[in-house]
Amino acid sequence: MSRGQDMTCGWSEWINLGKPTAGPNGGEDESIQKINSAGYHVCTNPEEVQCFIVYNETDHDGHCYIGYCDESCHIIQKHHPCTQKECTDVFPPRKDGESWKESNCRIGTCDNGRVSYNHTKCPTMKPLVCANNFPPVEVWDDDECCSHYECQCVCYGWGDPHYVTFDGTYYGFQGNCSYWLVKEILPRYNFSVMIDNYYCGAPDGLSCPQSITVFYKSYKIFITQKDINSIATNKITVNNKPVSPAYQNGDFRIATTGIDTVLVIPKIHAKITFSGLIFSIYLPYNEFSGNTEGQCGTCDNNRSDDCMLPSGKIDPSCPKMAHEWHVNNSQCEHPVQPTPTPTPSTCNATICEVIKSSVFEACHKIVDYRPFVVACEFDVCHMHIYDIGCTSLQTYADVCAEAGICIDWRSATKGLCEYKCPSPRVYQACGPVVEPTCDFWYNQKFIYTVNEFSAMTNVKLEGCYCPNGTYLLSSSSNECIPYPCGEICHLPNGKWTKANTTWTEGCNECKCEEDTLQVTCRPISCPALPPLSCDEEGQVKITETVKCCQNDSCVCESKLCSDSVPSCPVGYTLNTTMGVCCPKHSCGILKDQPCNVSTTAVYLESDGCHAKDPVNITFCDGACGTFTFYSTKMRSLQHTCSCCTELASSERQIQLFCPDNTEITYTYTHIDACGCLKTECSVLGHSEMAATRFSIKSRRRRR
């Protein structure tokens, strides 16, 4: 059955399909798809059936009785003389001559009991002239059958700044504060836009935009542009959390070309762009007509109310109106409007002529260029920024691009407005809002999927893109790789590497696996450590990491060395050599060293009292002519002995300091001269040797 033809109904063969299931009002529900899948081909192209005729009978008195189901599945009974030709084969039954709207833009008509269908006839669209000089756009009616023309609500600003309201009123405003560009008079979407201006280096106090904030539903979307390492970088936060474009949730999408940041909100068909000194706001007339206020004015295709104050009154001066839209919690001084000064005779505004030239000729009939020329000449002649005129050209080019006319204009400025993109990207005058990457899922979501988001970003804008023949590695990287991307691994630092590549990263050996295109890393393999012993005095063993591997080594710990120094007997000298870690001491017999006075530094002590500084104590040290030989004449061993002993001495005194803070005078013997004296040679027994040593010690203690 096709629509517009008579409906023919009949019973199918009996269908026995499974166990009965209860329907919503008794009876049984069964889908056509389930019946077809069971092998019963009763309907190849099923259409939704919302009702049916239960009966349509005529009695013997000429009355027609009709019973049909309503939307609640209740039976509605009607009867009438059969002479009335009602259309009873539609739901609900229609009276003769009645017309109604059907789906797919069709009109149904009941004529003498028969239903006919015709397509909706649309009236001729009336031409429309828009106050903002933008061409009207074709908009579908609510039933999506016919269309009509509507004006566009377009507000934009740039430079110091210059404003053009939704209805096309141009004015300049030098305010150093935060202001409302757009607010809803009667809140419908909880939508508003705020701008923050700052003084941007002109001697007469001119200001420039530095950020824009969009409020929608419960979102706060903040967009600004910062100079990072001499590169203009877009910074975006959503509810105070940083996000990286392209970013999309169920309500909006944010994208960037490297120059322009674009925000689209499909549900209300709103688009906002920002690129440092330039902003633009696009709103649909059917959603916002007569319901906007702020520095962008009221979008109602009427310039006379563009300078409306927050009180609802109309100010004859838009710059004065603009100040009154400052944000309540911001401290704003009333801007002092600079006194208009004549254009200096030395002002060179040649760059502004490009707007009027053939470069933009294709856009002249679409977007009025005159406000941009006025703004350009003002900026060039009043601001001490050599390339400030480029901002007006860029703004006009952006507005033209949004109107569907993309223009390569920078090449016509003889390098003055050249835009340098960070390497390896290059400038393109007409590129996509979302650049393709090597990430398939990213491309699928932001580029290949056709939906309400892609429809609003389907324009060509200037930006920084990878050179021809290359693709951007990912949206978060600045790497361009040859197309097709092929088998590569993405690295955490935003770089990339080919499959099967190996490299060392820290203490790990990493590889781009060919099968999975994922990076795997494992610790560097280290050789087994040989056994190591640290047995010398003062040695300790330590384990340290050298080139990612553990290594054992012996190191010296001076505090483990012994502090004791042996006392050598007369005729012996103390020899000190350096061991592996600690000094080694030994007593040796003096050889070939004449008897002489030697000194050693000693801290003198007596009864617990000590000298503050060491004292040079003298002693006789050296070899004398002592020998033993066999005499044939005497037939015995003959001994000749001489001792290295003191020849002259004197007494000296020193102050010793005691623990009880007292001092005592201590007297000691100082040897002034030494020499060799002959003495009797004898062999001492063990007992005598012991006694001699003891007496010497006793003498030292008494001293």
List keywords for this structure.
703 residues, mainly beta, Protein Transport Mog1p, Chain A, 8-stranded antiparallel sheet, elongated, disordered N terminus
Q: Topology, please?
A:
Blueprint: H1 32-37, E1 53-58, E2 63-69, E3 75-81, E4 99-102, E5 106-111, E6 114-119, E7 137-140, E8 147-150, E9 152-158, E10 162-164, E11 170-172, E12 178-184, E13 191-199, E14 207-216, E15 219-228, E16 231-238, E17 241-243, E18 247-248, E19 253-256, E20 261-265, E21 270-274, E22 278-284, H2 285-288, E23 292-293, H3 318-323, H4 353-356, H5 361-364, H6 370-382, H7 389-402, E24 426-432, H8 440-448, H9 452-456, E25 460-465, E26 470-472, E27 480-482, E28 488-490, E29 496-498, E30 502-505, E31 508-512, E32 519-523, E33 539-546, E34 549-556, E35 572-578, E36 583-589, E37 596-602, E38 605-606, E39 609-610, E40 615-621, E41 627-631, E42 636-657, E43 663-679, H10 686-702
Overview of this protein structure:
Helix 6 runs antiparallel to helix 7. The protein has six domains: about 90 residues, no CATH class; about 190 residues, 3-Layer(aba) Sandwich (Protein Transport Mog1p, Chain A); about 80 residues, no CATH class; about 70 residues, Laminin; about 35 residues, Ribbon (Complement Module, domain 1); about 130 residues, Ribbon (Cystine Knot Cytokines, subunit B). The longest helix is centred in the last third of the chain and has 17 residues. Helix content is about 10%, strand content about 35%. By secondary structure, the chain is mostly beta strands. Strands 11-10-9-22-21-20-19-18 form an eight-stranded antiparallel beta sheet. Strand 9 and strand 10 form a beta hairpin.
